[in-house]
Design a protein that fits this description.
By secondary structure, this protein is of the alpha/beta class. It has helices at about 5-10, 60, 155-160, 200-210, 225-235, 255-260, 295-315; strands at about 20-25, 35-40, 50, 55, 65-75, 90, 105, 110-115, 115-120, 130, 145, 165-170, 175-180, 185, 195, 215-220, 240-245, 265-270, 275, 280-285, 290-295, 325-330, 330-335, 340-350, 355-360, 375-380, 385, 390-395. Strands 7-4-6-5-9-8 form a six-stranded mixed beta sheet, with no helix packed on it. The protein has a six-stranded mixed beta sheet with strand order 16-13-17-21-20-18, with helices on both faces.
Length: about 400
């Protein structure tokens, strides 16, 4: 049996590069950027007006000119209209390109307009005010979004603004999620009193969909020959196999023997943790990785977030995110000498701290609690008393809200 830290290290030692692909920018949300996005021209591309008002040459202010004749009205997108004299101005709107003959914008709040004549009603204007100058944000060729980051709506906006309609992204691994056991029935079937529906596979696939990874689903009955045949097929057609159930020491747990028979070597089996102690991890000679999670829903959910998703992020070369920590909201006792992943509800204190309130359930089969909790808080082994106010690592699985 390995520790949580050893299991993590062994899994992260198997990081793989699955290559890159080009996708249309509107389809890239949630993927990992594999190439820098660069400005195709200066940003902004012209001297941009940032307030509605009038555009003048500041020399008029220096000459103490206080009234101006409106030479033209210019909206955003109009060709720039120039003035010929210092006592002329352009009535101009936000977003318009500044004409070359003017250099300062006076907002409507500081002027009075009557019969085409503008009169200044306040003083204190500064040369160049209310302008967003060409190239102030980025110069042509500058990086506007660096690779190795998650493509968010903001990145989509940046790509659109520079005309980058095709983005290079990291390829995702081909993943199959396998459930096993004759006690499982399809979700649209009515189970007998001794059967349960196949929920784990759909849970895993739903989590992976959040990472834009579309996994296939497969069910294996409690039959050693069928188990071996199905696993052989998956080894030949996928990069990663995620399994749920069938890896314990039961008489009908055929998966460990089948994996061994088809050349999948055990890297570790059993982790000193709760939930998820029976977690199994192995590798085939052709590089296919097998994550075999325990069948209990909470154990599967925890192992997926604690081990597989960090591995996936590392393979995608996603810029490392800082670890998240929370303050334990109350005293907690856990006697077994195991690393414990406690389900918690998160909230923010008035001091800006994340507080983790323990939500105790009925073990790793109590999946109903997952809908009401936000994260697992990782309580280290080697102690059994955890005090209110202590800070521990958390693994969020729900977006934090304020």
């Amino acid at each position: 049996m390995v520790t949580v830290e050893q299991a993590e290290a062994l899994i992260l030692a198997e990081i793989k590069d699955f290559g890159t692909e080009t996708v249309y920018f509107e389809d890239a949300l949630g993927r990992i950027l594999a190439g820098d996005i660069k400005a195709d021209r200066d940003l902004p591309p012209f001297n941009r007006v940032t307030m509605d008002g009038i555009a003048i040459n500041y020399a008029a202010i220096e000459k103490d000119i206080k009234s101006f004749k409106i030479k033209a009205i210019q909206a955003a997108g109009d060709s720039p209209a120039d003035i010929d004299k210092h006592d002329e101005c352009i009535e101009i709107m936000t977003g318009a390109a500044l004409p070359s003959s003017v250099d300062t914008v006076i907002p409507y709040e500081h002027i009075d307009i009557k019969d085409g004549i503008v009169t200044m009603i306040t003083t204190g204007a500064k040369k160049g005010q209310n302008l967003h100058l060409k190239g102030a944000d980025k110069k042509q060729g500058d990086i506007v979004a660096a690779k190795k980051q998650l493509i968010t709506p903001a990145v989509i906006s940046v790509a659109a603004s520079v005309g980058d309609t095709e983005l290079l992204v990291k390829k995702l691994p081909r993943v199959v999620v396998i459930s096993s056991g004759d006690e499982l029935v399809n979700v649209d079937e009515q189970p007998s009193p001794i059967q349960i529906r196949k929920s784990n596979s759909y849970t895993i696939r739903a989590v992976l969909n959040q990472y834009r990874l579309e996994a296939d689903l497969l069910h294996i009955p409690d039959n050693p020959e069928v188990t071996k045949e199905k696993l052989n097929y998956c080894i030949a057609n996928y990069d990663v196999i995620l399994m749920t159930g069938g890896i314990s020491m039961g008489k009908f747990d055929h998966i460990p023997k089948a994996l061994d028979a088809i050349g999948v070597q055990t890297i570790f089996h059993k982790v000193s943790q709760r939930p998820g102690k029976p977690f199994w991890f192995g590798k085939n000679d052709n590089g296919v990785l097998v994550f075999a999670f325990p069948g209990n829903p909470v154990a599967t959910f925890m192992c997926l977030h604690r081990y597989f998703l960090p591995w996936l992020n590392a393979c995608q070369e996603l810029s490392e995110k800082p670890k998240m920590y929370a303050v334990l909201g109350q005293d907690f006792t856990f006697k077994p000498d195991l690393q414990y992943f406690l389900q918690v509800k998160l909230k923010f204190s008035d001091k800006g701290q994340i507080i983790a309130e323990a939500i105790e359930g009925n073990g790793s089969g109590d999946f109903a609690n997952l809908a009401d909790t936000d994260a697992f808080i990782e309580l280290p082994k080697g102690r059994d008393e955890f005090k209110q106010g202590e800070v521990f690592h958390i693994w969020p699985f729900k977006q934090l809200t304020i």
